[in-house]
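Supplementary notes for students who missed Thursday's class. We covered one full example, reproduced here. Read the sequence, then the structure, then the short commentary at the end.
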Amino acid sequence: MAFQTTALYALPLAVLGLALWFRVSMMRAELKVSIGDAGHPGLHERIRQHGNFIEWVPMVLVLMVVAEGNGAGALWLHIAGALLLAGRLIHPFGLKAGHAGHPLRYVGNTASLLAMLTVMVCLAVLSLGL
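Structure (token representation):
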């Protein structure tokens, strides 16, 4: 079975994940820091931007694959995928070490949470007939 709808979101998310990883790696090389952040707020910020991406994206994509494999309608998947992609694109711009309440942080995480909830509701409808 092909997971065409989920793949539409998995590819740009993978590119974004690599970009966030690359930003961490470049700063690590620049600062000559192998592990941790060595007290550098900028490196810590980039590590968390990448880490937050890794905390959200795999689980939502797995749930999307499960939903698509169980016959979820494309609309459910597009809503979840678009929310996840938008949230993950926006979030790094708001995750700032000196500004915990940055609006883009809230928008990004809210979009990711809504993506997760969307696909969870979809799975509940499919699995439990709700």
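Commentary. The helical segments are 4-31, 41-69, 74-94, 103-128. The chain has four helices and no strands. If anything here is unclear, bring it to office hours.
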